[in-house]
Design goal:
alpha/beta, eight-stranded mixed β-sheet, 14 strands, globular
Length: 302
Amino acid sequence: MPLSRDAALNVAKVLSEAMPYIQNYVGKTIVVKYGGNAMVDEELKNAFARDIVMLKLVGINPVVVHGGGPQIGDLLDKLKIESHFVNGMRVTDSATMDVVEMVLGGQVNKDIVNLINNNGGRAIGVTGKDARLIMAKKMTVTHKTPEMSAPEIIDIGHVGSVERIDRKLLDLLVESDIIPVIAPIGVDSEGQSYNINADLVAGKVAEALDAEKLLLLTNIAGLLDKQGKVLTGLTLADVDALIADGTITGGMLPKIDCALEAVRNGVKRAHIIDGRVAHATMLELFTNEGVGTLITKEKLQD
């Protein structure tokens, strides 16, 4: 059935609005951290996959980094392995690390690859252990109270931070018109595996690839002010001020820190977007309004 005149005009308006954005991003790399509701809701999963395929079709190079915390937790529960968290990070002993590798590098990674391929793309899944893509180092956490004379160092097991991203493998995939899908598992020089926060990996991958944009999908509308309104068009200085005055606190801080560090280290723009909205990636990239918070090094010119 043909579109009505109003519907056809609306489609034309959307395509016309998207055109200058597409022209700006052709040949550029965009790193997308995929997680949250967008990863479990069937409609949102397929919308995300179509967005990624569309980016590739119009000449943009998407690189996907995914999480998988809830899936890891589900399997640990089934195996009757108790989960413990310190400062929001899962304590990862050897048995837990085996589960992390099984879930992230196997089940979740391959499900996303299959999803993209079923929607017309060509994706390949890798972990940070492949070709030593993500070199990691052990992360330790310190804890101190006013009563303590010195901080306590807490060993949280196989939890790591990123030491280096080797971009050669990613360049090879991108140049072959393949969409890389990265599981956030790193390895050290001794071959030990590490579970790494997916936001952190996405930021470091974006830095290593000199990405035009870093997109972090979340389960909220974006960065909110104290009245609950979405903030956007923020500079690094703006975000620092929002942290200082207590607007940004708690669980949003690690995600913001990843975005800030990426922008400070050369990524042109970072976006914290609402993954609960279908086609959030396309809406943020190709429309004037977007669906989240944009962070840049300096104020954008109108």
